[in-house]
Amino acid sequence: MASFHDFLDPFWEPEDTSEPQHPPATPAEGYQLEVPGKGIIFARSTAAKSLCFKVSPNESGDRSLILNVMKNSCEFSTEKADVKTPLPNQRVVKLPPNSAHLRVARPGSAAIPTVYWLSIDRSNAVVRYGKDLPNNALTNLEVQLDKETDKWIESLVDVSVIEDGETQAKVTISKIPVTVDLAPLVVSDQSITMHQLATGTVTTVSDLPAACQVLYHNVAGANITLDNPEFPAFADAIQRSIDHPWLWCSQKLKAKAKAHEFGKPDIKPDIKKTYLRITLGKNKGNSPGIPYVMEIWPPGHSSPIHDHGKSSAVIKVLHGQIQCTWYNSLHGDKGHPEKIGNPVVMKKGDVTWLGEEQYQIHKLHNPSRGVCVTLQCYRFDGQDNVHDEYFHYLETGSGNEKKFDPNSDMAFTEFYKTMLHEWTGPESNFPFFEAAFRGSGDRGDGAD
């Protein structure tokens, strides 16, 4: 199981939780670490030449830590009595997948602000630097200090971040440094094992952000399932509705492909880039769209790469398998998203999650030969004062960032009745309806 942690845009002021991995990052007042020698410094910048982090000591220290990020290089150094000394090269470790230099806009393109972060961890004598989201998978440079001889790290307090040699960058600070990665698979406190606790291959419910904890408890129960004694063939009915072009699911998928829901209008419709959104309940105003969405993924179908408007979410697999791939951002150093780790395939009963700080950007894909059904649950964190009502995705055919208004293809109660009717009603008379459909000339394959 691939494991990652803490996707974070610190400028959205995420909600604090009882045991947070990273407490909310707040705009730096006077630019100081709350705890000497410990924390994450975030700078949102469009710098084109250089971005210089400098963390100076309090009265008990004797030197500063400097990180200078440039267009084609990156360097750690210390400064004592106005004398700068580069840290020895062997103590600076470049980690994949990203390069460490500035993310500079291509000629003719507008500069997109990038979040650069510096993590200082006196407890483990480690300094890390990365971009976008603070986690080990996106660490660019790591310096392992000596806890006995590098005591100077413990006195670092005062922060400045200068872009292009003259302007103070916009800075926020969180007091918990980057340490370990949290896993995407969620388990209850009743099912976690000592081995899982030791290896960190799962995340317990109590470690989730508060909004995710609420969502998990709402949908993790045994009765949140497609297995219905009144309609035991519910999943089979959905599969058949996809397979036969005169039935509702197939017709709706074809209509969505022709509407170019996630693709450029001038390219050939691709039905494999569609999925169905079946909503449960009403929009309560605390989520992007209706908070509970049953999503139906035919074999081989996928979503675009997208974020979730900084909302939190819990995803439960109700039937089949779904593959989830995570990304660093919608743009990345090469002008496109870069994968974090390896894709993870989740099966029936598995639960994953995302938050304002974690797993915010992903792509879902059904790699199996059968339909997959998932339940997506969304909620804004309590301290989110923005409430972005849209998901942001990369358009098929252009790669441009677009907004998606989380909509509904059908309400759950109506969909349930439709599937039951297709399974037991006149539509179940295959020879008659197949002949009528073929006579209409509609191929049902999503092509124009």
Summarize the structure.
With 448 residues, the chain is of the alpha+beta class. Helices cover 14% and strands 31% of the residues.
Structural class: alpha+beta
User: Which percent range describes the beta-strand content?
Assistant: 25-35%
CATH architecture descriptor name of the largest domain: Sandwich
**Large-scale geometry:** elongated
CATH class of the largest domain: Mainly Beta
Strand elements, count: 26
- According to CATH, what is the topology of the largest domain? Jelly Rolls
Please outline the major beta sheet. Answer: 7 strands, antiparallel
Describe the structure.
The chain is α+β, with helices and mostly antiparallel strands and 448 residues long. Helix content is 14%, strand content 31%. The protein has two domains: 22-174, Sandwich (Jelly Rolls); 186-440, Jelly Rolls (Sandwich). It has helices at residues 194-199, 210-219, 234-243, 248-258, 412-424, 430-440, and strands at residues 26-27, 38-45, 50-57, 64-70, 74-80, 83-86, 92-94, 114-121, 126-131, 139-144, 156-163, 167-168, 170-174, 186-187, 203-204, 276-280, 292-297, 312-319, 321-327, 339-347, 351-354, 362-365, 372-379, 391-394, 401-404, 410-411. A seven-stranded antiparallel β-sheet has the order 1-13-2-8-9-10-7, with no helix packed on it. Strands 6-5-4-3-11-12 form a six-stranded antiparallel β-sheet, with no helix packed on it. Strand 4 and strand 5 (74-80) form a beta hairpin. It is elongated. It starts with 25 loop residues before the first strand and ends in an 8-residue tail after the last helix. Mean pLDDT is 85; it is low at 1-9, 11-20 and 443-448.
